[in-house]
## 1
Amino acid sequence: MTSTLGYALLNLIACEPQTGYDLSRTLQERISFFWQAKHSQIYPELAKLESAGFITHEVVRQTDKPDKKIYTITDAGLAALRVWAVAPLEIAPSRDELLVKTAAFWQADPAAAAALLRDHERQHAEQLALYEGIRAALEDEWERAGRRHDLPWFGNYLTLMRGIGYEREYRDWCRWAAAMMEAGD
Amino acid sequence: MTSTLGYALLNLIACEPQTGYDLSRTLQERISFFWQAKHSQIYPELAKLESAGFITHEVVRQTDKPDKKIYTITDAGLAALRVWAVAPLEIAPSRDELLVKTAAFWQADPAAAAALLRDHERQHAEQLALYEGIRAALEDEWERAGRRHDLPWFGNYLTLMRGIGYEREYRDWCRWAAAMMEAGD
DNA sequence: GAGAGCATGTAAAATGTTACATGATTTT
DNA sequence: AAAATCATGTAACATTTTACATGCTCTC
């Protein structure tokens, strides 16, 4: 019943009780690895998780800002998360618009195609630099926490390392493909 | 107006005139890099492309099999494809359910999590082997065609190389992450 | 006789994005 | 005075997946 987004939210709430607004910021930042969502999808999903008994909320009244709902994971939610996390999964082919464009480069102007690839090389290099910065901070934090595998940092670290590998590989491919286009005439 | 799927279809038809059925098989195979679709999405999309004037079809009557519609790209379609292919594009964060699960591994049973990662390591290794096989064939074909950049092979080759890099990096990460989980206690 | 392949479509449901809607406080 | 931040929601639209629907031929 619960979607991937639902479990993503459940894990974030398990890490720390928080509001829908907090969750929506996390899932829109560029450091949100491998899943994203807008607030318009998050609020209804939180309602579903709550009616499934996976989370509860308490209203915190504020005077200067709007009141807010802080969500907390329940025992049932934690149990469901643990089961889902290790359930078998087929590898899913990913979608990437740049690669669809690339497949059409045999029809395109080589100089313009090379420029597009150079632009993406730069974008992925920037993303990589961002991740490398977080890596240092995260490793530090993990060190101080005694390298424990049962703390949120561990999950974040594993996915961050995948993000680093992904961006590095993508940047290198852009560089190679751009050179191919530039050499082509 | 035209979606990414529309342009993906347009490029495939530009490579070779074909039917909706042919397209649906291509976009469901595991060698279809970086975009997929079911036939239920393809047939309506072809109708849109045709009403936009980007493709036309001729009906081929068959006696032993059902009649079929062979779609061909028009000059307007080719022009639209060439413009779209090099139009600027922001990098889009990718979605990957395994990584969402991984983020929750701090809550999961380490042995079960390691097993899941080992399974994906195997799946990505298989995909990589498949791509490496195609690579040899494609390079051969391209060699014989005089290494021209204006043939469909070129686009296929560029995307294939990205597929190879992607799968290799993913396999290596799975191996590393599995070792992390197995070492953890 | 059952199932797979060829071939084309529609309907319904789930998921994701963009836009609409409100309203106070703080910063530029 | 305009824009950004906090905070929560709904509505409309686009995209994607799953299921429904038909029918003929060939293979096991």
## 2
Amino acid sequence: MKTKGVSNQEIAGVFDEMAGLLEAKGDSIFKIRAYQRAARVIEGLPGSLEEAVAAGEELKGLPGIGEAIRGKIHEYVTTGRVSALEKLKAEMPDGVLQLMNVPGIGPKTAMLIAREAGVSTVEGVEKAIADGRLQKLPRMGEKTAENILRNIRTLRTKDRRIPLGRAMPVVERIMADLRERCPALEKITPGGSVRRWQETVGDIDMMATTDDPEQAVKAFVGLPYVTRVLGKGVKKTSVILDNGLQVDLRIIDKESFGAMLQHFTGDRQHNIQLRDYANSMGLSLSEYGITDMKTGRMEKFTEEEAFYRRLGMDTPTPEIRHARGEIELARRHALPRLVEVGDIRGDLHMHSDWSDGRAPIEVMLEAAEEAGYQYVALTDHSSGRGIANGLTEERLRSQIGILRSMRGMAMKVLCGSEVDIRADGTLDYPDEVLAELDVVVASVHSAMGQSSEKMTERIIKAMRNPHVTVIGHPTTRLLGSREPVQADMEALFRAAVETGTAMEINASPERLDLNDTHVMRAKELGAPLVISTDSHSTGSLEKLRYGVAVARRWWCEARHILNTLPLEDFMAFIKTPKPERMRVFNQRLGG
DNA sequence: GCCGTTTTCGGCCCGACTGTTTTCAGTCG
């Protein structure tokens, strides 16, 4: 079958567009939700939908995707268009979807503006407000116009989402400051994407209990780095910080804290699915508790676990609450025990001031030992193109000498290197040098614009090198600043299994590379995964938790992660010649 | 539009806040 080369993301985009237009049209809210739900399901699919269609698969059994949507997927994949969408576009005024992107402009307002004021662009909205035309429309006034205008401005200036690693310190600071300024504050905790450890955060949700909500709200809006108050109530208050981040604070009775925690941790799809399930039991869920729909009586919960228990299920850890099967497993009491920070026995990617790190070798190693590791690999950069003060063969040999003669460490120190994978797939050091190392992390640092075919071939060539232990930050992406390289990840994971090469989950919050979806597929195919910090200073060692969260989000257990192996087993792994390593990995970790 | 150990038809998650209104629609999460 001839196909057009469309990604799952694009297909999901079609249904989001459908949903948006139907919303503006005022169509059935349930039909709209069905399209949105389908879009979310499609986004979360592991394999390519296009390939599935090309292979003649029926697409049956995908939740939320029935006859009609199936047909549209098929149409889009084979023809590159969806006639229903085009028809819809034709009957709707131009620009409605664009207008709906502005916070404060929903489907109704977008239609009103487009139809009555003949405006189809965001710039047009600004003009209409300046003219006073918009304010004259029904249910529009000065305040609404002012709000929209401000939202347009923030939309232009602010970065849409920030890495979790930047949001977390903000959360910690707010918690500390509120505790200090509001003695009546009892519990306070983040919810939403922060609590779920998502890689990026759009805004921050916080939850609190207190006997004095007014005092808490006053303290909150009075924080010195709050620049704007979006809304203020005793239950919900929203502010914008000087760094552009929006923070919502919700306050609730302590009897309902567990219910609220559940409610505002989400994600959205998890909650929808959970409420759907509760409905089938005759129960209705809200942030206040669980209501028996027959008697109308509400039960409150101080603890989240009790809330889930009332529904007859275990509590899925927040990281996996994204409606991808966790509810079903929780009901069957079959949730896996996910890998934890404490399971990691060694860090396999770390730099010293010999290359671009900030601390001397001894300082880095002492910090690692303090962190409780059984082993650590020091992996300074190879000489490459002279970047990052890479080590010449000579300096590398001298570093090896120092490390091998080190005494007095309880932790095993492994000699390693982060070796450049050159544009043609060869490595910076010759094989006889690599052979002297215990751990070789091979990474791409240059020629990132290569075609997918070339890049895939390049990385696989590095994997075939008998001395390469791990592929470092496989896609090289930097959150918010550098796109991932083009590569056939599926092929890389298969090559990892075939060659006995591990794939890194780089825990640096700016990288998180592999990401959670990659991890899911790698795990499925049985590729060994490694979680490393890529530390350039002692402070980065604690960033391990971000990498562990990536693994947890797609249900990795300790057995999927190579560096959860105790020292003896890990040594057995690296001492075994390469393709054979898979046997060791599968034996020691039980695949 | 999807879905069904209640159903192939009739349901579909739930509440807070704002602004423009005299009782609520619209938006958001």
